[in-house]
Design a protein that fits this description.
Oligomer: single chain
Radius of gyration: 18 Å
Largest sheet: 2 strands, antiparallel
Order of helices and strands: HHHHHHEEHHHHH
Shape: globular
Helix content: over 70%
Number of helices: 11
Strand content: under 5%
Number of strands: 2
């Protein structure tokens, strides 16, 4: 399998912008194929996610065509790769942090919803079906949206914060309880009035 070689090569040339960009364009189709729900290349999906992460993490700005990787990650998560959420959170976080404007304005053609709603559905699915480790990852996604989209996601906060508060009594793992408390603190920083409203409603 050539994927480990590609991975090593991409990391080794990450400081050579022109060469890195050229090779990235060659690898795009391979990554998209790995993440395709029709193909379901489960043996290689970690490499695909890692290559996608390497590409977007080592560019100064997210180019429009790179959002195809966000789309592919979203579809694969929904269709067959739920168990790989802990790996996917890194590229999702990079997309949101590096290009919050596109994240807030863009739409997933495959799923027919906004990129923000893609993350919302990811959080809902994880809290509906995942274990505490997965829920910890979803809570981190909630925090990433708040941290990077200050003042633009009041509805997102109002939708998810009450559920996160309700999770605290059921969080048996200390690291998960701590992350839930950090999420509440992030909500208070984002919008104190809205966050306190949710806290008051939950007693």
């Amino acid at each position: 399998c050539a994927l480990p070689i590609f991975k090593t090569l991409m990391h080794s040339i990450s400081n050579e912008a022109e060469l890195f960009a050229r090779l990235s364009m060659k690898i795009y189709p391979l990554i998209l194929n790995i993440l395709d729900p029709v193909v379901q290349a489960m043996d290689f999906i970690e490499y695909g996610i890692d290559l996608a992460t390497c590409i977007i993490d080592n560019v100064e700005a997210i180019r429009p065509e790179m959002w195809r990787l966000f789309e592919a990650l979203s579809v694969s998560f929904n269709e067959f790769a739920f168990d790989y959420l802990p790996y996917m959170i890194v590229p999702f976080d990079i997309f949101i942090a590096k290009d919050p404007r596109t994240f807030l304005s863009g739409r997933s053609e495959s799923l027919g919803i906004s990129y923000l709603d893609v993350i919302g559905k990811l959080i809902v699915k994880t809290f509906d079906t995942g274990g505490q480790m997965d829920k910890k990852v979803a809570t981190r996604m909630f925090m990433s949206v708040l941290h990077n989209c200050q003042g633009h996601v009041d509805g997102f906060l109002g939708m998810f914060l009450p559920g996160l508060i309700d999770q605290i009594p059921h969080a048996s793992e200390f690291s998960y309880r701590r992350m839930l408390i950090e999420a509440i603190a992030s909500a208070l920083v984002y919008n104190p009035e809205l966050a306190l409203q949710s806290l008051h409603q939950r007693g």
